[in-house]
Design goal:
The chain is mainly alpha-helical. The chain folds into three domains: about 1-55, no CATH class; about 60-125; about 145-250, no CATH class. It is about 70% helix and about 0% strand. The chain contains twelve helices and two strands. It has a two-stranded antiparallel sheet with strand order 1-2. Helix 7 crosses helix 8, helix 9 packs across helix 12 (about 230-250) and helix 10 (about 195-210) crosses helix 11 (about 210-225). The longest helix has 30 residues, at about 95-125. It starts with a helix and ends in an 8-residue tail after the last helix.
Amino acid sequence: MIWYTFAISTTSKLLWLGSFEVRNYARSTKERSKTDKIDAKVLYRYHRELDAKKITVPFLDKEALALTQRRNVLLKLQGYVGMFRNLLEATSPEDKALIRRIKKNIRSFEKEVDALEEEIKQMILSIEANQKHFENLQTIQGVGAKAALAFLLEVARYPHATTKQMTALMGLDPVFKESGAYKGKIRISKQGGKHLRKALYMPAVVAIRYNQRLKDFYERLVAQGKPKRVALLAVMRKMLTYMMAIIRTGEPYRIAG
């Protein structure tokens, strides 16, 4: 039962193993079923075959864990708001009692969303360095308070990540796949956290209109024949690079010259 004891002791370290890597490993062993015992065996076998030098264990500290948990609850609450809004639209206007009940739920969830957003903001800004980072990040045309907070939350989760590592953690790293006669295209991996990708989408849309440097960058890619969606993703990746530089230097965003 060594495999079971090992897997149970490493349950909190799944980030170390990498969910995508383990899932692909399980597929390679033709393991189709999924139970706790099977998962434990797969984790143990994977660990035995993995080069120890490639193992890193990025533990979340207490503050980062608290932020992550609140962010996850916030996303659920926002989902409930959307769900009840859809129900409201689908409800007959004649059913006044049901409409009142749905609206009451919407108000209740929106109140919880506002309270949790404020709590997350205060937790992030309680870190002294983040107060200045929060201001500096918003000097990038297109980046507002929500995007800045979303980024600072990820920095709190991965405080020692390099720009390249953060790009990969957020799934914005480019990947290329081809096989035989099939010639693939360069796409983003999407194998990291989707939260910051979503938070950077609208800032990137704004940036290609009002941030001259990023606008020129975007238009140059489009002129080279890149699809607009690909060019926009490249802008998001570039914005992430700028944001990491702001955190590293402690300086606001500036356009040289």
